[in-house]
TrEMBL record:
<comment type="function">
    <text>Catalyzes the anaerobic formation of alpha-ketobutyrate and ammonia from threonine in a two-step reaction. The first step involved a dehydration of threonine and a production of enamine intermediates (aminocrotonate), which tautomerizes to its imine form (iminobutyrate). Both intermediates are unstable and short-lived. The second step is the nonenzymatic hydrolysis of the enamine/imine intermediates to form 2-ketobutyrate and free ammonia. In the low water environment of the cell, the second step is accelerated by RidA.</text>
</comment>
<dbReference type="InterPro" id="IPR005789">
    <property type="entry name" value="Thr_deHydtase_catblc"/>
</dbReference>
<dbReference type="Pfam" id="PF01842">
    <property type="entry name" value="ACT"/>
</dbReference>
<comment type="similarity">
    <text>Belongs to the serine/threonine dehydratase family.</text>
</comment>
<keyword id="KW-0456">Lyase</keyword>
<comment type="pathway">
    <text>Amino-acid degradation; L-threonine degradation via propanoate pathway; propanoate from L-threonine: step 1/4.</text>
</comment>
<dbReference type="InterPro" id="IPR002912">
    <property type="entry name" value="ACT_dom"/>
</dbReference>
<protein>
    <recommendedName>
        <fullName>L-threonine dehydratase catabolic TdcB</fullName>
        <ecNumber>4.3.1.17</ecNumber>
        <ecNumber>4.3.1.19</ecNumber>
    </recommendedName>
</protein>
<dbReference type="InterPro" id="IPR036052">
    <property type="entry name" value="TrpB-like_PALP_sf"/>
</dbReference>
<keyword id="KW-0663">Pyridoxal phosphate</keyword>
<comment type="function">
    <text>TdcB also dehydrates serine to yield pyruvate via analogous enamine/imine intermediates.</text>
</comment>
<dbReference type="InterPro" id="IPR050147">
    <property type="entry name" value="Ser/Thr_Dehydratase"/>
</dbReference>
<comment type="subunit">
    <text>In the native structure, TdcB is in a dimeric form, whereas in the TdcB-AMP complex, it exists in a tetrameric form (dimer of dimers).</text>
</comment>
<dbReference type="GO" id="GO:0004794">
    <property type="term" value="F:threonine deaminase activity"/>
</dbReference>
<feature type="domain" description="ACT">
    <location>
        <begin position="326"/>
        <end position="400"/>
    </location>
</feature>
<dbReference type="GO" id="GO:0003941">
    <property type="term" value="F:L-serine ammonia-lyase activity"/>
</dbReference>
<dbReference type="InterPro" id="IPR044561">
    <property type="entry name" value="ACT_ThrD-II-like"/>
</dbReference>
Amino acid sequence: MTLTFAQIEAAAARLAGQIERTPCRHSKTLSKITGAEVWVKFENLQFTAAYKERGALNKLLQLDEDQKKRGVIAASAGNHSQGLAYHAQRLGVPVTIVMPKATPFVKVQQTRDFGAEVVIDGEGYDEAQALAQRLCAERDLTFVHPFNDIDVMAGQGTIALEMLEDAPDLEILPVPIGGGGLIAGVATAAKHLKPDIRIFGVEPATFPSFTARIRGMATPNAGQTIAEGIAVRQVGDLTYAIARPMIEDVLLIEEPYFERGVALYCNIEKTVSEGAGAASLASLLAYPNLFKGKKVGLILTGGNIDTRLLSSVLTRELVREQRICSLRIIGDDRPGFLAAVSSVIGSMGGNIIEVAHNRLALDVPAKGAEFDVMIETRDSRHTDEIVEALRERGYPPRRI
C-alpha cells in the first residue's frame, strides 16, 4: 500500500467547506529572529484546534452506510480523539474513544462533549490501542487509526496543498513526527508539486521513534516532553515506508527549544500553540544554520495546551530571558536593611515579586541574614543595571 497525490487531491475535494481553510502567513518577526523567511500555517484555528480533523474526517467521509451505522472506534488521548469525535457527531456516526488512564480530565470531558463514548483504560497508548482493537472486533466497528492509515495520511497531506498554494516559493518544510501520518501526507503532496522541496522530520530528543527506526534501534524513552502530541514510542509501518524516501533528515529537539517555540508563538504571533505544535519553529531555533536565508514553511499543528502548562512555559521563558531573576543578598540583620535594598531596586525601575528572608543558613554570620529577592525587569540589560547598582550601594548580590 502506498499514498498517491491523487488520493490527497480527492481528500481536499471531500474536505472543502467542512473544515477551516487555515491561513498560511509570512511572519516578519519570526523571520528576523530565526534568520529564515518564515511562513506559518495556523492549524490551531481548526474547530478542535488541531490538524487531526483533516485525516479523521477524510476517513469518515469514505465509510459506507453500513459502516456509518455501526460506528467507529479509535485509541487516542489527544487531538485525534477530539477531531474524530467532533466530525462523527456532526455526520451522525457513533464513535467510541479509548483513552489511557493518565489522560487529563479536560481532554476526556472535551471528547465526551462531542458525543463520544469514552472508555478509560490502559496505562499508556499501547494498552489503550490493544483494547480498542478488541472492542472493534467485538462490536464490529471501523477502526480509525490516528496515523497508520492511508485515508488519514491523505487528509493530513491537504495541508501541503494549501501551503504551496499560498506560498509557492517555499524551499524547506520541517514537519513534526509522532506516528508519521502528518509527514507522510505532507511530504507526498509537497514533493509531487515541487520535487526539489526539502523535507525534514522533527522529533523530541526524548522520543526519537522515527530516528530509531532509521538506525534499526529500539526507541529510547529518555524522559518527559511538553511535545506529548508527538511523543510516540513506535512510528507506523505504513507511515515510515511512505515518508522515509522523501525525508532528508530527522532533527532531534531538546525541551528548551519547544518551550521557546510556544513562547514565541504566544508573544510574537499572539496565538496559542501546544508543545508539539511548536516543533517546526523549535527546529529553526535549534538548527539555525540549516534554515538561514531559506523560505521555510512551518505547520503550527495544534493549540491544545493545558493552561497551567502554558503559564509555566511563559514564566520560564521570562526567566530564560532574565526578565525574572532571583538575587541572593547577604547583609546585617538590622532594621531597614531590606528597605534599603528595596529602595535601590525600585529606584532603578525593577519590580520585586517575592522576598525570602533566612536567618538560619550556616554560611551566613550569626548576626547576619540572607535575602532571596525575585525581581522583574524589562530585559537582561536592565537586570544587569540593577545588579550593578546594588553592588555600588554596598549590597553585592549573587544570582541564583
